[in-house]
């Protein structure tokens, strides 16, 4: 435990069994869990661990290990990092006020803390620091006293006994005569020389071959033209957990019970209503819009809104049955559209067979271990009175109609794993969006991932995560992606507040924490207000959607957002979903939009295409053009790099660059009311070459309402310029 008040004495001697330690060090890493209480932080500040070595950023704050604020625990911050075993490192806590490398920092004062790992797989470090013990720089706190000297001596002694491996020796220079002799050997001569050399090596003593004298060559003046290095190759982003079809895909999310206008309740006795069959009327629309992934919110048999599951192996009778769903999945696949389902595995509804067994037989039920139970009413939020006795049970966020499963129970695990296999293998879906994944342990999701990958190796798993650190359950060996709530809000609020600084800050945070994760981005879904209701100016739909589709991540469009549908949480009238039916209203008929959308997909320049395109609502036309652009340049908009620390932005404008090899694209946003006639892009010029020629690759008309282009332009604009794909 580090602390300015604690005295550290360095006592160093040769370690016992150095060779064994070195061998172990190379094989078993150690996870160090940091926990610190920091008083007096203001909004926007956060804590990170910075120190010696690559793991802790080599004393560079923006490369350190950021900690997570723990809700409801006062001023507690937690985080973890993986170190080699038998490592000694110095560290300090740093308060940061932003995610850019130049962000203001406050360093912990006093001597450096010293951390030593050993053969343990996990180590806990617990600290507490007062806010007044912080300074503006590392150097000003490095007072040369006995404590600092002791910590430095300990690290120095450790490095002496455990030095890093030496670098490989440089290749020996080849003399001119040897080089010429090698040039003379070619074809069969070279083979013969190799065979002779191998034979000589086996003979004792070795026979030395007589070398021919080097031939003298006449001096020739050679003027070498400067070599132009080849352009760097284009790269493709690869992920062990996210297949290419998901990385390059465009998601269209539908909420089936609302999309098809189903009844709000289900008594599980009525006839099957094949409303899902109506989705066939939208196939051409999905395809013409550019959708490649269709994500269904819950469609399993349930009591009300779909998240209170009664049977995971059946389609909700208000929508259809499994046979119909199989047909739909196969038909969509033929059109190049994959299906992802919503898996609600954290909790069930009260009509699930396991909870029904509890209600009948109480704690003596065979399903008693499926849920977390207690004897007294005040121990858990749910309460059930059965003929066999009363019991309390855990439920999701206190909702008694959503009893929470105990996923550590073997039978519960096998039930969920069987469900996952059934829909992946028997029905043919391509992946899962996992509801409230943040409520379930990483260990469970790792097992779930293995089951799914064995069933379908290229499946995609997306966890719903809101506030928590995505890295806890997303990454290699776990889920492939997470719903990017932590960026979503800034996409629209930065437009309402005319403050692109907020979006820039959020992008920098995402880059610092999650740049290695392909996250699912959205501006609307079934739980949040629709984007048309969020934005103060309808013209800003262009800016929000352009960022969604052209920045880093996998974009998801919520059904009807492209049509300007509105709705906020609580505005609806359904008592069973808390008024959230306002965001889940029926999808209107869009068959009349298919011909103009198909016209926009043409590349033959037909004059009729432009005339038909004018029949589209402005927001639909914007959405189509942006999806088409992303699909045309995947090397930039999918696989391209985006450095969030190199962005040109003011309150109402922002420019960012995506790059891949020598290809560049500049995405420039102007959310203000006035046009920008000159913009020098000083903030991103380091990513551009002076001789680069750019061409405009996105043409979107000015805002208009209805289905006719305006006679006068509206305010606000967004533009995209790109160099040639392989050009400079």
The geometry reads as globular
Count of runs of 4 or more consecutive helical residues = 19
* Main beta sheet strand tally, sense and closure: 8 strands, parallel
Q: How many beta-strand runs?
A: 29
Task: Describe this structure as you would to a colleague.
There is one protein chain. It contains 19 helices and 29 strands. The N terminus and C terminus are likely disordered. Helix 10 runs parallel beside helix 11 and helix 15 runs parallel beside helix 18. The protein is of the alpha/beta class. It is globular. The strands form 6 sheets. The protein has an 8-stranded parallel β-sheet.
Give the structure's gist in a few sentences.
This protein has 19 helices and 29 strands. With 728 residues, the chain is an alpha/beta fold.
Helices, strands, pairings?
Blueprint: H1 18-25, E1 29-38, E2 46-51, E3 65-66, E4 68-69, E5 76-84, E6 88-96, E7 105-108, E8 113-116, E9 122-129, E10 134-135, H2 146-161, H3 176-184, H4 187-202, H5 244-247, E11 251-254, H6 256-259, H7 283-289, E12 293-296, E13 300-302, E14 309-315, H8 322-334, E15 338-343, H9 353-361, E16 373-374, E17 382-386, E18 389-393, H10 410-427, E19 431-434, H11 442-455, E20 460-463, E21 481-482, H12 485-496, H13 500-514, E22 520-522, H14 531-534, H15 541-550, E23 554-558, H16 594-600, H17 607-613, H18 618-632, H19 634-637, E24 641-642, E25 648-649, E26 653-660, E27 663-670, E28 695-696, E29 717-722
Parallel strand pairs: 1-9, 11-12, 11-23, 12-15, 15-19, 19-20, 20-21, 22-23
Antiparallel strand pairs: 1-5, 2-3, 2-6, 4-5, 6-7, 6-8, 7-10, 13-14, 16-18, 17-18, 24-26, 25-26, 26-27, 27-29, 28-29
Helix pairs in contact: 7-16, 10-11, 12-13, 15-18, 16-17
């Amino acid at each position: 435990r580090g602390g300015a008040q604690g005295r550290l004495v360095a006592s160093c001697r040769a370690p016992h069994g150095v060779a064994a330690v070195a061998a172990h060090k190379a094989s078993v890493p150690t996870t160090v869990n940091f926990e610190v209480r920091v008083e007096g932080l203001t909004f926007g500040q956060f804590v990170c661990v910075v120190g010696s070595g690559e793991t802790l950023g080599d004393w560079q704050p923006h490369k350190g290990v950021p900690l997570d604020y723990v809700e409801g625990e006062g001023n507690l911050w937690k985080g973890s990092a993986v170190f080699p075993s038998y490592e000694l490192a110095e560290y300090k806590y740093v308060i940061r006020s932003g995610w850019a490398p130049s962000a203001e920092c406050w360093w912990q004062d006093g001597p450096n803390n010293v951390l030593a790992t050993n053969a343990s797989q996990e180590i806990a470090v617990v600290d507490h620091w007062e806010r007044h013990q912080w300074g503006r720089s590392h150097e000003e706190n490095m007072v040369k006293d006995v404590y600092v000297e002791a910590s430095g001596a300990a690290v120095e002694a450790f490095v002496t006994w455990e030095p890093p491996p030496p670098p490989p020796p440089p290749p020996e220079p080849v003399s001119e005569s040897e080089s010429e002799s090698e040039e003379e050997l070619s074809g069969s001569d070279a083979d013969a020389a190799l065979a002779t050399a191998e034979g000589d090596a086996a003979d004792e003593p070795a026979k030395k071959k007589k070398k021919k004298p080097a031939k003298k060559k006449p001096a020739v003046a050679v003027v070498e033209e400067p070599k132009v290095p080849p352009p760097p190759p284009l790269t493709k982003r690869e992920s062990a957990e996210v297949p290419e079809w998901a990385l390059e895909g465009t998601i269209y999310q539908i909420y089936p019970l609302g999309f098809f206008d189903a009844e709000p309740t289900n008594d599980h006795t009525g006839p099957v209503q094949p409303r899902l069959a109506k989705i066939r009327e939208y196939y051409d629309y999905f395809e013409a819009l550019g959708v490649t992934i269709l994500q269904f919110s819950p469609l399993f048999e349930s009591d009300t809104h779909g998240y209170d599951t009664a049977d995971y192996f059946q389609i909700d009778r208000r929508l259809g049955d499994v046979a119909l769903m199989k047909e739909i999945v196969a038909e969509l696949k033929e059109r190049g559209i994959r299906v992802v389902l919503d898996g609600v595995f954290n909790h069930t509804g009260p009509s699930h067979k396991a909870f029904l067994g509890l209600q009948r037989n109480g704690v003596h039920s065979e399903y008693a271990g499926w849920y977390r139970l207690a004897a007294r009413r005040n121990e858990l939020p749910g309460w059930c009175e059965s003929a066999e006795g009363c019991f309390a049970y855990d439920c999701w966020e206190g909702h008694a109609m959503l009893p929470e499963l105990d996923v550590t129970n073997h039978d519960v695990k096998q039930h969920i794993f069987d469900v996952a296999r059934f829909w992946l293998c028997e029905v043919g879906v391509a992946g899962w969006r996992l509801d409230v994944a943040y409520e379930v342990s990483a260990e469970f999701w790792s097992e779930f991932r293995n089951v799914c990958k064995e069933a379908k190796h290229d499946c995609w798993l997306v966890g719903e995560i809101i506030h928590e650190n995505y890295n806890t359950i997303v990454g290699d060996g776990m889920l492939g992606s997470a719903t990017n709530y932590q960026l979503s809000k800034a996409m629209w609020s930065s437009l309402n507040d005319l403050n692109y600084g907020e979006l820039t800050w959020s992008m920098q945070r995402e880059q610092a924490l999650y740049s290695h994760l392909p996250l699912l981005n959205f501006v609307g879904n079934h739980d949040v207000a629709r984007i048309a209701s969020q934005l103060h100016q309808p013209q800003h739909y262009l800016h929000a959607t352009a960022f969604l589709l052209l920045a880093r991540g996998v974009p998801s469009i919520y059904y009807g957002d492209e049509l300007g549908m509105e709705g906020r949480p609580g505005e609806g009238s359904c008592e069973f979903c808390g008024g959230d039916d306002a965001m889940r209203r029926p999808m209107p008929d869009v068959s009349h939009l298919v011909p103009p959308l198909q016209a926009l997909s043409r590349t033959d320049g037909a004059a009729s295409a432009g005339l038909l395109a004018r029949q589209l609502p402005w927001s639909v036309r914007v959405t189509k053009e942006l999806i088409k652009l992303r699909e045309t340049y995947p090397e930039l908009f999918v696989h391209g790099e985006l450095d969030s620390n190199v962005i040109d932005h003011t309150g109402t404008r922002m420019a960012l660059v995506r790059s891949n090899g020598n290809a560049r694209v500049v995405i420039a946003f102007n959310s203000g009311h006035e046009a920008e006639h000159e913009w020098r892009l000083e903030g991103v010029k380091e990513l551009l070459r002076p001789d680069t020629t750019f061409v405009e690759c996105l043409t979107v008309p000015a805002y208009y309402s209805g289905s006719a282009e305006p006679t006068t332009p509206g305010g606000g604009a967004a533009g995209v310029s790109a160099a040639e794909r392989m050009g400079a």
